[in-house]
Design brief:
578 residues; mainly alpha; two-stranded antiparallel sheet; 19 helices; 2 strands; 2% strand; mechanosensitive monoatomic ion channel activity; MSC_TM_helix; transmembrane helix; MscS_archaea/bacteria_type; transmembrane
């Protein structure tokens, strides 16, 4: 029997549990040397061993029962304490306040279940103490010693934990007060409403949207927690986590003055730009510039903003650009400020050229409107509106739709198709005036693009102007050809004969074909193909005419040829004169 216990102890010697088992089995009596030649002695020795083992088990049984009782009572106490803690936290608002203080949220649906975490911690702490008591009741000091060491360390850590909790509570109080002051101050200044007015965002009242004041308050809230993180880690003596946090906080504090300076510059510039935009917009609106924009087709309903508001926005942007440059320079972060400042500086350098180009386009527009109206009036007085009848074309008028006046309120409950729009017609003189306006604007666009010094855009606009000129030249050639074709038709058909009608139509078609080829060649649409087609057409007409004349007048031509030959022969047979 003793050999069996020794073998079991030796087989478990290499495992982690073998150390504990060897300490327990060491209390067993030492083995006795048994003589195999005396079986009675072996039997008596076995009986003695069983008696001693039974006595040890009986002596150890109260300890086992006491350990089981301690375990059951400890588990019961842990469950009761956990339930009591959970119930107290559920009935009070302490858990929600703790969760709100840790997360910064006030909505109860977004808060974590702190009561479950706290009750679980209470339960497992009591269970751990119960396990230590059970091991001590069993006199298993070798097993309970690590747990005792752990509990001693945990109990020694409790003062540090309490100190860290006190610092955390102070941080929460300070962060909450700062957040409350910042949020209330920004709401008193109506910062959110000002931003909504600047961005023209209409948010429904019932929509849950995070405002800028709440965002700034939350940022300050967590920043204060970050500042208090250093003493908390120092109190907990977590030196490995303390060094990177200290480096981070040092860098943040060192760059904080630059950030505050940049924010102050940006806020001051934005406030100044907002005030200047309102002043400029109101002054221009009171001066009646919106009516001037309405005269030239710039209506608030079509563009979304009036002319005064557009000019005010331009002034607003012009003020914000140097403000942004100053704010980025104050930030002193080269990775961000250098490319951004370079981009804004290029925009500032290009502003004079942009304004000059815009001024050229505006002046060209007014000049084009004046010249277009002048040309329209002159052509109308000269009877140019009858040009279609002169060219032999049916009288046509280009229709345009005129929207209702701006001052008349519109009922948006009706569909857009139900709104009546007045229709007017454009005369040929007005069409020529529009063409003159477009031509002047194209030339002004070439000049404006040349001022901007954009070669690709300059070549593109120049090509468009050249194409526009070719189209106008082609239309002029075609119009002159139509006039000549109708004139030839009228002259030929003035006799009233049927043959004259046919010849007149042939002449008109021939002239129209000729001027069509000339117009297409002038426009530059496949000049080689047009020339080849026109040459083939004239050749076909000439061949057809020759064949028709040859086949139709064959007998007359033969008679004339015979007469010519007879006359030649008679002259040849006459004797020469002396």
């Amino acid at each position: 029997m003793n050999i069996t216990w020794q073998e079991m102890s030796a087989s478990l010697g290499n495992s982690h549990v073998s150390i504990r088992l060897q300490q327990i089995l060491a209390q067993a009596p030492p083995p006795q040397v048994i003589d195999p030649t005396q079986p009675g002695q072996a039997f008596e020795s076995g009986v003695d061993y069983l008696e001693r083992l039974t006595a040890q088990i009986v002596a150890f049984l109260p300890s086992v029962l006491a350990a089981l009782a301690i375990l059951l009572v400890g588990l019961l106490i842990a469950a009761i304490a956990s339930a009591i803690v959970r119930g107290i936290l559920n009935r009070t608002d302490i858990d929600n306040r703790i969760a709100a203080g840790l997360t910064g949220h006030t909505d109860s649906t977004e808060l974590p279940q702190v009561e479950n975490v706290i009750s679980s911690i209470v339960f497992w702490v009591i269970v751990l103490l119960t396990i230590v008591a059970v091991l001590q009741a069993l006199n298993l000091q070798a097993v309970s010693q690590p747990l005792n060491t752990f509990l001693n360390q945990l109990i020694g850590f409790i003062p540090r934990l309490i100190g860290a909790a006190i610092i955390l509570a102070i941080a929460w109080v300070v962060a909450t007060i700062v957040k409350l002051i910042a949020t209330r101050s920004l709401r008193v200044l109506r910062l959110d409403e000002q931003l909504n007015q600047q961005t023209n965002v209409d948010t429904p009242p019932n929509q849950n949207q995070l405002s800028l004041s709440d965002t700034i308050g939350n940022a300050l809230y967590w920043f204060i927690f970050l500042l208090f993180l250093l003493p908390i880690l120092n109190t907990l003596e977590l030196n490995q986590a303390l060094l990177p946090v200290q480096t981070l906080i040092t860098q943040i504090i060192s760059i904080l003055p630059n950030i505050l300076a940049a924010v102050l510059i940006a806020f001051t510039g934005w406030l100044l730009a907002t005030v200047v935009r309102r002043i400029v917009t109101n002054l221009l609106a009171s001066a009646g510039i919106d009516r001037l924009g309405t005269r030239f087709g710039l209506q608030q309903r079509t563009t979304g903003q009036s002319l005064s508001a557009i000019i005010g926005t331009i002034v607003y942007v012009l003020i914000l650009i140097p403000v942004a440059i100053a704010a980025l320079n104050a930030l002193r972060i080269d990775a961000i400020s250098v490319p951004a400042v370079a981009m804004l500086q290029q925009i500032l350098n290009a502003l004079p050229a942009i304004f000059t180009a815009v001024f050229v386009l505006i002046a060209a527009y007014f000049l084009g409107r004046f010249v277009g109206d002048l040309v329209t009036n002159i052509l109308s007085s000269l009877g140019f509106d009858n040009i279609f009848s002169i060219l032999g074309l049916p009288q046509t008028r280009v229709r345009r739709t005129t929207p209702p006046p701006v001052d008349v309120p519109r009922d948006y409950s009706t569909p857009p198709d139900a709104v009546a729009a007045a229709t007017t017609s454009r005369t040929p003189s007005e069409i020529v005036g529009i063409v003159v306006l477009v031509g002047i604007m194209l030339f002004a666009t070439v000049a404006a693009v040349d001022i901007l010094n954009i070669p690709a855009l300059t070549s593109l606009v120049s090509g468009i102007v050249v194409i526009f000129g070719r189209i106008l030249a082609g239309l002029a050639v075609f119009a002159v050809g139509l006039f000549l074709a109708n004139l030839a038709y009228n002259i030929i058909t003035s006799s009233g004969d049927r043959q004259a009608q046919i010849l007149g139509q042939i002449a008109r078609i021939a002239i129209i074909a000729l001027v069509s080829a000339m117009a297409l060649q002038q426009i530059g649409v496949a000049s080689n193909i047009v020339n080849l087609a026109f040459g083939l057409l004239l050749g076909a007409i000439a061949v057809a005419t020759a064949l028709a004349f040859g086949l139709g007048a064959r007998e007359i031509a033969g008679e004339q040829v015979r007469e010519l030959l007879a006359s030649f022969k008679s002259k040849r047979n006459q004797p020469p004169r002396s």
